[in-house]
Amino acid sequence: MASRTPLFERHRAAGARFIEFGGWEMPLQYSGIVDEHLTVRQAVGLFDVSHMGKIFVEGSTAHAFLDRFSANDVPTSSGKARYTHLLREDGTILDDVIVTCLASDRFLLVCNAGPRVVVWSWLKTHGTADVVLTDRTTERLCLALQGPRAPGLLQRFTSIDLSRVKPFAGVTIDFVPPAPWGARPRAVPPEIEGWGKSDSGESAIPSARDPSVATGRASFLVTRTGYTGEAGFELFPTSAEGSWVWESLLKSGADLGIKPIGLGARDTLRLEKGYLLSGQDFDGHQTPLEVNCAWVVKWGRPFIGREALEAQRARGDYRRLVGVRMDDRGIPRPGHRVLSCGVDAGHVTSGTMSPSLRVGIALASVDRGHASPETSLQIDVRGTQHAARVVPLPFL
Question: Hey, which CATH number is domain 8-50+140-270, 3.80.10.10, 3.30.1360.120, 3.10.310.10, 3.40.50.11220?
Answer without folding.
Answer: 3.30.1360.120
